[in-house]
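Recap quiz, item 2
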Amino acid sequence: MSLTPAYDAENIFAKIIRGEIPSVKLYETDDILAFMDVFPQSDGHCLVIHKRATATDLFDIDREMLASLMAGVQKIAGGVKDGLKPDGIRIVQFNGAPAGQTVFHLHFHIIPVYEGRALGAHAGGTPAEASALEELADKIRSALLKA
Ligand code: AMP
């Protein structure tokens, strides 16, 4: 398999964009969607994707779309920062299965880091309760509204 496989429109994030499966949304425009990660590595772990870019990874998106996606990442990370007040924030993006990529629609992880609390495993474990995700999402959404 090449590092950048062909885009598969049946990937789980494409289904989230089309509304075929549910997600806890934080922010949405014609271009950008941010939603909570269901296997969070920490409280507030969320994902930002471009809705119109059929890109599997960083090498597969045109620069204008990437610029608008990165602006979205900065905006949502600001909401996480103000809404949850973590001690640090990781922005992570994986390219290729050997690097750890499990969903092949380009996305950026926003992972809040809290001092003294270890991060959970990447893309595994038990899914978070929808109510817990909603509670965290509310705080992020409120911070985004105030920004
Ligand atoms: P990656 O391994 O970088 O491709 O990241 C994919 C991320 O998507 C992981 O952190 C998963 O926990 C997350 N994920 C998988 N399925 C869903 C879903 N249905 N809703 C939200 N996040 C998901």
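The mean pLDDT is 96.
The chain has one domain: 12-146.
End of item.
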